[in-house]
Amino acid sequence: MLWNTLLLALRAIRRNLMRSFLTTLGIVIGVAAVITMVTLGNGATQSVSDRISSMGSNLLMLVPGQRFGPGSEGAAKFKTADVEAIRGQIGAAKHVAPVINASATAVYQAENWSTSISGSNDDYFEAGGWELASGRVFTESEQRSGRAVCVLGETVREKLFGRQNPVGADVRIKQFSCEVIGLLKSKGQSAMGTDQDDTIVMPLRTVQRRLAGSQDVGRLMISVHDGASIDAVKEQLTLLMRERRNIGESEDDDFQVMDTRQIAETLTGTTKILTMLLGAVAAVSLLVGGIGIMNIMLVSVTERTREIGIRLSIGALEREVLLQFLIEAVVLSSLGGFVGIVLATAASIFLAALMGIPYLFDPGINLLAFLFSAAIGVIFGYFPARRAASLNPIDALRHE
Amino acid sequence: MSASEPLIRLKGITKTYGIGQAAFQALKGIDLAIESGEFVAIMGHSGSGKSTTMNILGCLDTPTGGSYEFQGVHVERLSRNQRALLRRYFLGFVFQGFNLLARTTALENVELPLIYRGDPAAERHAAARAALEHVGLQGWEHHTPAELSGGQQQRVAIARAMVSRPKVLLADEPTGNLDTRTSEEIMDLIGTFNREHGITVLMVTHEPEMAQYASRVINFVDGRVEKDQRNRGEI
Question: Rounded to whole angstroms, how far apart are CA atoms B83 and B81?
C-alpha cells in the first residue's frame, strides 16, 4: 500500500508542477533566510571572540573608575609607582604595562596622518600580543630618559611611508621629531571593529612629558603567568590598589579589574542578541512562507476535494487518500527544506567571505529549520485533506 | 435470471436531508430488486430521488433508514472502509461530469482503480491499455482530459469503470453533457458491456431515448417508485 500510495503522491506532485513549485518556494526562502541569518550571526560572534582571545586569555586590565555606579567620574588615575608596586607584590604578574593614550598627527615629508599614540614600556608589546615586523623595541635608557623614539603600526607605516621601510627615519609629531625604531606586525581589526594597526607606541615618559603633560597613567595592562589563577590575581590586585589608593572599608572600589573573559562576554553578548534578532526576523519569513503554503492549499482545496471524491468513489480507502496527501506534503516540504539548506549554505559561505567572518556550520539550526518547514508542510498539506477525506464520497464529488 | 437471491435488494430505503422543521425526505421508502445482468434505466424529474437512490446503490451515500443487500450482504451494516472495498471490487462509476483527474493522462486515469487494488505495474499498464482500446481510444493514452472531447472523456471514464471488471456499472446521466450522436455511441458502448460481459448496468437518465437502451425502466416520482416495467425486445 505504501509503495502504491507513494506512486500516487509523486504523480499528484508532477501533475501540479506550478502548485508544487510555489509550495516548495515558500519553504525554500524561509529555511534559507533563517539558516543564513543565524549562521552569519554565529560567524560574527565567533569572529569577535577570536579577536578577544588573540589578546591573550591571561590578560587583566586595570582601569580607573567604576563603569557602573558612582565614582566613575574624576576617579584618580594610576601612577608610574603603581607599576613597580604591582611588580614587587604580585608574583604571578608576568608583564605590567602602564598605558597612556593621546592622539596626534604624525608627519613624514609631504604625508601626514592623524593617529592614536600609546605611551608604555616594553611589556606593552608582550602583554598586548604584538610582534615586531622589523626594528627593535625600547631600550632601558630610552624608557628612563623619555627619548623621542617610536614604534609604528602597519596602518601608520602605509599612510606615511607607503611600502618603504620606516625604521631609522624621523617622524614629526607635534613640535618634536621622533625616530622610528621599529615596525609592528599587523593585527587587523579589534573586537570593537577599530583598526588596531592605526597606532604609534612610544615610551611612557615621552608621551607623559611631550604630549600629555602629566605624570598620570590611564590604565594598566597586566599579563599573568601561565597556570596562575586569574581570579586570585584579580583579588590580590584589588586589595593592593585599594590600599595604595587609600580606600576605606566601607567605600567602593574607584577602579576596576577586568579580564578578557569579561570583555569577551560583554562583546559577544551584543552579537548574540543581534543574531537572535536576525534569526527572529528570518523566522517571520519562514512563517510568511508557511502562510503562503496555506494560501495555495486553501485555493486548491475545491479541486483537491473533488479529487478526493473521485479517489473515494473508485474504491480508495480514507487512510490511503490521507497517506497520499501526507506523502505529498512531506516530499514537497522536505524538498523545500533541503534546497533551502543548500541555498543557505552557499549564501552563508559567500557572505561570510564577503564580511570577513568565519563560516560556521550549525547543525542545530539546520535541523530546526528543516523540521519546522516539514511541520508547516504537513500541517497545511495534510489537515485540509483530512476534512475532505472524511466526507461522504458524493459530498466530496459535489464540492463547489 | 436467478430465482434465489437477487444481486441487489432494497427494502424500505429512506433518505432525509436536514433535521427538524427543515427536514426534507428525498426517499420515502424504496423497495427494489435487481437481478444480475440487467440493464436498468432509472428515470424521473429532478428532485424525484433517482440520483439519491443511485448514490446509495453506489455506496457513495448512506441511507437514513431501510436495508440494502448486495449479494446478500447488508451494506448498511458495513463500515466506511468495507464500503470503499465494495466500490473497489464490485462497482464501477460513470458520471455526467466525467470526473477524471485533471492534468492526468487517460492511461493514468484508467490505471487508478488498479493501483488501489495493488496490481503489479506491468499487469496494470496492460489492463489499462486494453480497456482504452476496448472503448476505442487506442493512440490517446497519453492525452489529458483537457485534450480530449467530451465523448472521449466519457470513454476514458467508462474504461476506468470497466478496467477492474466490476459486477455493476453505475452511470449517473452518462450522456447529460454530450450531443445526440456521441450519446448514442456511449450508450452503444455501455450496452456492449452489458450484453457481452454480463455486467449489470444501473443508469440514471431523464432522456427517454437513452432509456430505450435499457431492458427495464424504473420511474421515480417524489421519492417513490411509481412505475417499474420491462422494455420490449428484452434479452
Answer: 5
Q: Shortest Cα distance from B113 to chain A (angstroms)?
A: 6
Q: Enumerate domains of chain B plus CATH numbers.
A: 8-229 (3.40.50.300)
In this complex, do A317 and B85 lie within 8 Å of one another by their Cβ atoms?
yes
pLDDT at B8 over 50: yes
Under 8 Å between Cβ of A254 and A76: yes
B140-166 per-position pLDDT tens digit: 999 999 999 999 999 999 999 999 999
Mean pLDDT for chain A overall: 86
A314 and B93 within 8 Å at the Cβ level: the answer is: yes
- CB contact under 8 Å between B81 and A317, yes or no, is yes
Contacts of A280 (CB under 8 A, 6+ apart): none
Whether the CB of A216 is below 8 Å from some CB of chain B: the reply is: no
**Which residues of chain A have a pLDDT value below 70?**
54-57, 67-74, 191-192
Task: Kindly list the domain boundaries of chain A, sorted by start residue.
Answer: 2-51+265-397, 77-244
> Quick one: pLDDT at residue A374?
80
Contacts of B161 (CB under 8 A, 6+ apart): B92, B93, B94, B169
Collapsing DSSP to helix, strand or coil, B217 comes out as strand
pLDDT in tens, B174-184: 999 899 999 99
Size of interface A-B (CB pairs under 8 A): 73
Count CB neighbours of B37 within 10 A: 18
Contact indicator for A38, A218 with CB cutoff of 8 Å: no
3-state secondary structure at position B17: strand
pLDDT in tens, A74-102: 678 888 888 889 988 888 888 899 999 88
Reported pTM:
0.71
Looking from the CA of B189 toward its CB, the CA atoms found within 13 Å total 28
